[in-house]
């Protein structure tokens, strides 16, 4: 995005309505950036307040601040943190672009609802993250980094002792033993944060390449004694394990988990239900006072058996925090990063002052999940 261009594409952002959501898909810095790319911005009154951005901040940056119905009526494209509800989809005019994490891998009915409303769906979950042109659009990376950082803080806060070793006149307190399961973007941030707080950190991931990354952060790699050397799937991501491999992994994790005070789980496989790593037997084997933060908790299930969004304490005194929403608890910075990702996705589709799709481009082909233009007739 270079020189300022005449604004012709109108981008709108609304107040996010889902529970736990404090982020917003547009921030004042990004309004300025989009104006330079030929996009004018509309934002609903109060949409940035939970992230500490006021209506005045947006207006100063050059956005129009309006009621929701006017934003929806005038926008060519709408950007979201959490995908729009069915009610909202029904109220968006045909031809509007809807940009965000649309859940297209796991919810074909939702994509069909966008399609039948005549909307163009841009599913950021389908970003080909390995492309260098996609790096600044990578919402999974930006938000998972924030989540991993916050997960370590939430765990430390819920734990009834210190993370660091502490020597006091009344005695020496040993450091917390923290286990991180899933050492991707979120897991590595959780390792770094827990280490900075002084915990003794061990981590595990199914991808063989993760051992070096874990060790380079000064954590110990947990050896399960299992060979998943073919554990790497396409594009450097984890593959889903077979039922037999999963059972072996769960048994080994359950057994090794026993000695830890805190467990943070962040394991995911793109487009699939998160893998179950710690079963009820593993949770029951933990000592009273242990804390688990499951960042993969979702309606589809998480990495820990019995985790659900929110906090619960087991009969054995283990606190399980199901926390997929943690990026929202660092809303000011998380929103700014996310807004940059969404804006760069939008700007990619602005061609000659209009929104346009070129299915011959890898990015366009990957991201458009609803409202794809008809293939040109064969000559
Ligand atoms: P993710 O959120 O899909 O998964 C998180 C972690 O869970 C991954 O490290 C995965 O290996 C792990 N996992 C999955 N199943 C597991 C199991 N059964 N047991 C233990 N761990 C399991 O992935 P992510 O964190 O976004 O990224 C994963 C990898 O992709 C990293 O190596 C990252 O560097 C790479 N990546 C590359 C690019 C790029 O090329 N630009 C961008 C983003 C991520």
From TrEMBL:
Reactions that this protein is recorded to catalyse: NAD(+) + NADPH + H(+)(in) = NADH + NADP(+) + H(+)(out)
Keyword Transmembrane helix set for record: no
GO terms classed as biological process: NADPH regeneration
EC number: 7.1.1.1
Keywords: NAD, NADP, Nucleotide-binding, Oxidoreductase, Translocase
GO cellular component, one term: plasma membrane
Domain Alanine dehydrogenase/pyridine nucleotide transhydrogenase NAD(H)-binding: 156-322
GO-annotated molecular function: NADP binding; oxidoreductase activity; proton-translocating NAD(P)+ transhydrogenase activity
Span of domain Alanine dehydrogenase/pyridine nucleotide transhydrogenase N-terminal: 12-147
InterPro entries per UniProt: Ala_DH/PNT_CS2 (IPR008143), AlaDH/PNT_N (IPR007886), AlaDH/PNT_NAD(H)-bd (IPR007698), NAD(P)-bd_dom_sf (IPR036291)
Function summary: The transhydrogenation between NADH and NADP is coupled to respiration and ATP hydrolysis and functions as a proton pump across the membrane.
Membership in a protein family: Belongs to the AlaDH/PNT family.
Protein's recorded name: proton-translocating NAD(P)(+) transhydrogenase
